Amino acid sequence: MVTLVSCSVLPAPPPTPTPPPPTQAGDLRTQLGVLLTEHVMIVAKESAGAINRTDDYAGYVALLSTNEGALTRVVRTAIGSTTAGLWSKAWRALNGDLVEYAIRIATHDGDRADAASARLTATTMPQLADQLADLTLGQSSQFLPTLHNEITALRDMINAQANHTYAAMYVSLATAISAAATIADMLAGGIALRFPDKFPGDQSASDVVRRVHLNVLMQQRAYLVTMATAAQINGRTAERAQALGALSTNVDQLLEELDSSLSKQAWADELSSLQSYAGSGDSASKNALTDTFVTHFTAITKVSPGIVSNQVNATIKVIDDQREKRLDDVAEDDRAAATATQPIADSI
Length: 348
What we know:
- With 348 residues, this protein is an all-alpha fold.
- The protein folds into 2 domains: 23-204, no CATH class; 206-348, no CATH class.
- It is built from 13 helices and no strands.
- Helix 7 runs antiparallel to helix 13 (341-347), helix 8 (237-258) runs antiparallel to helix 9 (261-280) and helix 9 packs antiparallel against helix 10 (283-301).
C-alpha cells in the first residue's frame, strides 16, 4: 500500500523591494545650484537699485548676506565650522567688492570703481578660488577660469545697467548664471567625492540633473518676472522688453526639461496676467492668476494646487509692493516668491 503525502504549494514570497537610491549627493547639488545662481540674481537687483536710486537697494544688499548665510550653512554641514568660517569671509569679500563697484559706477566715481574692479581681479577672485579648491581638495586653477567668467559678466552687467544698454545687461546676466551653475556643479561634485559616506548617491543621474535644472530655472523665472514688472511699473520700457525676452528664453529652457507645449501656454498666460496686474492691479488679472492659472497648471503638471497657489500669491505680493512703493519689503518678498518655486520644481 502506497501512502500519499499531501503537499501544499506555498505562494512565492513577494520580491524584496529595491530601496530607493540615496539622495544626499543630489540634494547637495540642488542646494548649491539654487544658492549660487540666486546670488547672481540678487547682485543684478542690488546693482539696479544702486544705479536707479530706488529704495529697494538696501533690501537687496541685505539679501546678499542672507544668501551668504545659507551657503555658509551648507558648507558648515558638509565640512565643518572652521572651513565654513573661511568660506564666509571670502564670500563676504566678494559681495563687498561687487556692492562697492555698483555704488561707484552709480555715482560716477571712476577711480574708486576701478579700484574695486582691480581688487576683485587681483585679490578677491584668487582667494575665493583657493577656498573652492580647499572645499573639494582640488586645485584653484580648476575654478579660476569659470569664476573669472562669472565675475567679469557681473561687472559687465553692472556697466550695462548704468549705460541703459539692457540687451547687453541680460546677455551678461545669462552668462553669469551659467558660470555660477557650473561652479555649483563642480563644488557639489568635489564635496561628494571627498565625503562619499555623508553624500551618497549619483549626482549625474538623469533625475538629479533634471531636478537641478528645474529648480534653478524656476527660481530664475521668479526673479525675472519681478524684474520685468519693476521695469514696467517704473517706466523702463527698454528694460522691460529685454526682461520679457529673457523670460521667453527661460521658458524654452524649462520646456527642454518638461517637454510640454501645454506648459508653455500656461506660463505665457500667467505672464500676460502678471503684466496686466502690474499695470492696473485689477481684480480680473488677479483672479486669472489665482484661479485660472493655478487650475490650468496643476491639471497639466499634477502639482498640488496649494503649492502653486503659494507661489502665485507670493509673486502678487511682490508686485503689490512694487506698485504701492513698499520698497522696504520688496527684497524679502521677492526671495519668498523665488523660494516658493522649489516645491513646484521638486514636484513636477
